[in-house]
Amino acid sequence: MDSALADYNQALKLNPRLDKIWFNRGTLWKAKENLRQAEADLTQAIACNPRLTHAYAQRGLVRLLQGRAAEAQADFDRCLELDKDLKESLERLIIAERAKMSANK
User: Fold this and answer.
1) pLDDT per residue as tens digits for the range 43-86
2) What is the DSSP string of 22-62?
3) Distances (CA, A) of 102 to 17, 40, 82
C-alpha cells in the first residue's frame, strides 16, 4: 500500500486535477483506516469531477464509519441521483460496512 500511496502522490504532483487518482488514494486511505485523509481525498475527487458516483459512495462509507449518518446518507443519495443503477451495489456496500463496524465493536 505504501508504494501505491507514493505513486499516487507523485501523480498528483504532476497533475492535481486527476479525479480518479484522488479517488484511488482516498480508498487507499480508507483501507489504511485514516478516515480523515480518506474523506479529504474523496472530497477532492468530487471537486475535480462532481459526477464521479463512486467517490460519493466511498465518501458516504467513510462518513458512516465516522458515525456521521446524515452526511453519509446525503452522499449515498447524491450517488443514486447520478446513477440509479448503482442502488443494489450501494446497498451491498453499506451492509458490508455496517457488518464490519458491528464486528469491530
Assistant:
1) 999 999 999 999 999 999 999 999 999 999 999 999 999 999 99
2) HHHHHHHHHHTT-HHHHHHHHHHHHHH-TT-HHHHHHHHHH
3) 36, 25, 30
Q: Tell which residue, 57, 62, 64, 47, has the closest CA to residue 90.
A: 57
Determine which helix (DSSP H) or strand (DSSP E) holds 8, and give its type and residue range.
helix 2-14
Residue 49 sits at φ, ψ, to 5 deg, of: -145, 90
Would the pTM of this model clear 0.90, i.e. be above it?
yes
Q: Do 94 and 68 meet the contact criterion of CB atoms below 8 Å apart? A: no
